[in-house]
UniProtKB/TrEMBL annotation:
ANK repeats lie at residues 99-127, 129-164, 165-197. Residues 1-31 form the signal peptide. This is Uncharacterized protein. Keywords: ANK repeat, Repeat, Signal. PANTHER family: ANK_REP_REGION DOMAIN-CONTAINING PROTEIN (PTHR24126:SF14), ANKYRIN REPEAT, PH AND SEC7 DOMAIN CONTAINING PROTEIN SECG-RELATED (PTHR24126). InterPro entries: Ankyrin_rpt (IPR002110), Ankyrin_rpt-contain_sf (IPR036770).
Length: 230
């Protein structure tokens, strides 16, 4: 993804490994188990995770930053630990981090299709208010992101979900995502005439990134709706 995308989603910068090592003892867990749990996430060691869960360790124990194991595993791309945690009936698949992001949102932004599929199978929330998983998936530019967009729509994701500033998945796709995702959203009924709180449409998002061909695709969709171009 381009630098514009990285700037727009600066709150998505993932934890650096040195910071992930700075864990404090959690009062609700034995010190050794707590340290072992988060060290296993960092090292992507599913065996230790499975053993701790078998012994009754709470998979939803947060680190000192408030991040729970499932979210941290996705942030650090510890995929084996992620799937080990997901085996626990007690794990909270809708846990939020300090930025309000869920595991499904992080899996979507990373283009992690297997994780998205597994979370949906566990009943992860597709339509949380504000920033939604579809916003995150639509902002990606890989074939995996396009597959995730399609999968979320198949699971009844609201196609014109409004972010806190009124931006829709189509707007983010127009500026940051692939044309495949833009076309998919338009084909599935995304409204290209909507405006966010700044009065910007998806076409404006595309032109702001000098993506004239994407803007032309949106123009065609607007004309197909029988409405004037913005």
């Amino acid at each position: 993804m381009g630098t514009r995308f990285q700037a727009f989603f600066s709150h998505l910068r993932f934890l650096a490994l040195p910071f992930a090592l700075l864990f404090l003892q959690h009062p609700g867990a034995q010190a050794g188990s707590y340290d072992d749990f988060f060290t296993a996430i960092i090292r992507d060691n599913p065996g230790t995770i499975t053993d701790l869960l078998r012994r009754g360790f709470d998979p939803n124990t947060p680190n000192e930053r408030g991040d729970k194991g499932l979210l941290l595993a996705l942030q650090l791309e510890s995929d084996r630990v992620f799937f080990a945690l997901l085996q626990s009936p007690q794990v909270d698949v809708n846990a939020h981090n300090a930025r309000g992001e869920t595991p499904l949102m992080l899996a979507a932004i990373k283009g992690n299709l297997p994780a998205v599929q597994a979370l949906l199978a566990r009943g992860a929330d597709v339509n949380q208010p504000g920033w939604a998983p579809l916003h995150y998936a639509a902002s990606g530019d890989t074939p995996q992101h396009a597959q995730i967009v399609k999968l979320l729509l198949e699971h009844s994701a609201y196609i014109d979900a409004a972010s806190p500033n009124g931006s829709t998945p189509l707007m983010l796709a127009a500026r940051y995502g692939s044309e495949t995702i833009v076309q998919l959203l338009l084909q599935e009924g995304a409204d290209p005439t909507l405006k966010n709180q700044l009065g910007l449409t998806a076409r404006d998002f595309a032109l702001g990134a000098e993506r004239e061909h994407t803007a032309a695709l949106i123009d065609t969709a607007v004309r197909g709706r029988g409405q004037p171009k913005n």
